UniProtKB/TrEMBL annotation:
A GO molecular-function annotation: carboxy-lyase activity
Superkingdom field: Eukaryota
Residues where N6-(pyridoxal phosphate)lysine is found: 132
Upper classification of the organism: Eukaryota, Viridiplantae, Streptophyta, Embryophyta, Tracheophyta
Gene3D superfamilies recorded: Aspartate Aminotransferase, domain 1, Type I PLP-dependent aspartate aminotransferase-like (Major domain)
Family statement drawn from the similarity comment of this UniProt entry: Belongs to the group II decarboxylase family.
Entry keyword set: Decarboxylase, Lyase, Pyridoxal phosphate
Protein name, as recorded: Aromatic-L-amino-acid decarboxylase
Amino acid sequence: MAGITRLTVYAADQTHSTFFKACRLAGFDPANVRSIPTGEENNFALEPARLLEAMQADADAGLVPTYVCFTVGTTSSNAVDPVGAVADVAARFKAWVHIDAAYAGSACICPEFRHHIDGVERVDSISMSPHKWLMTCLDCTCLWVRDWHRLTGSLETTPEYLKNDVSDSGIVTDLKDMQVGTGRRFRGLKLWMVMRTYGAAKLQEHIRSDVAMAKMFEGLVRADDRFEVVVPRNFALVCFRIKPHGAMAEEEAEEANRELMERLNKTGKAYLAHTVVGRKFVLRFAVGSSTQEERHVRSAWELIQKTTTEMMMEGSIGEII
């Protein structure tokens, strides 16, 4: 274990916060966790050249680049890290490569979205969460590992009271040896029921319908000069905001958008979440409910427009058009 202080791990600054929590739990030195900066010029996706620079600098300093986590569909903006290019960089250092496709992985049941994971055959593991976008109740996350012996070798426990002939024979895989806990819920049954109930065609229809509605919402935002789409839409998430005009400072734009979000959420008719990307306070409109229809999206947009107009008339946000 003495060598663990030399191990370094990498992810984009848009990676889900659980990455950093997992690194702490695994015992990595916080000083060796690298958060690679992303930018608007690359739609906040991980830049392979920056990753290579960071990994090479660590290797030159005597550290050991060990693990790279990249994302297909980041939480903040749905950015997609380039799978193949990142895998190529990691391969130079023989680092473990994991894809977090918790949300957008579900979209890959549709052939037209599979290009987002081009190069997936070169990764070591990938996870996706059907409870996010595939009609499955919380919680259900799928993990695929190329070499499952890496898990069992690290997590295997064989106390006398758990020994049995079937396990010893290798006929079965003991899930206790592929996770931290000894027992687990039968989460797979949830997904099996969804797949059997809807079938591939209906699940694909669900994904495509959500994407189409999000695309429509994006068009409505772009058609109103008071707003801007901050990041080009991927999948079914639209990141937008009231656009600052004239002498309106960024701080004032944040205040206006925050107030708009709070007013909308208080109505109980729509719910928007926010994030900050590129130092901009951004509103997030996600389509994904199993009962959501186009009329709901249009109604939400009309509410957004109406509330914005009211704020302007009250002088809450000043002149922005």
